[in-house]
Specification:
mainly alpha; single chain; 6 helices
Length: 98
């Protein structure tokens, strides 16, 4: 967030208000599960930087590293192989640094 704030303060404000304030805070799913689902989507899209951030967020909200790896196993056959390999690498590098 700090990096985004420095480079694009208006966008950082929008992310804070919309993504965190409206999307991630809405009822229906517990935050831990919502972050795991976000990780699945980001892995499928090949969004490595965002995946690392949301994986750390999922862990801070109570997800386990095992749950994140299980999530990749579940979607493995449905996403691009390169995206899957990058996602596995990201979880290895960043998931434990919450």
């Amino acid at each position: 967030r700090n990096s985004l704030q420095r480079y694009a303060p208006d966008f950082a404000h929008w992310i804070e208000a919309h993504a965190y304030g409206r999307v991630l805070a809405r009822p229906g799913l517990e935050p831990r599960r919502r972050e795991i689902f976000a990780c699945a989507c980001l892995a499928a899209l090949g969004q490595e930087q965002q995946l690392a951030s949301h994986a750390r967020g999922a862990l801070r909200l109570g997800a386990t590293e095992s749950e994140l790896h299980d999530m990749l196993d579940i979607i493995a056959e449905r996403i691009d192989r390169d995206h899957l390999l990058f996602a596995r690498e990201i979880l290895e590098r960043f998931a434990g640094k919450s």
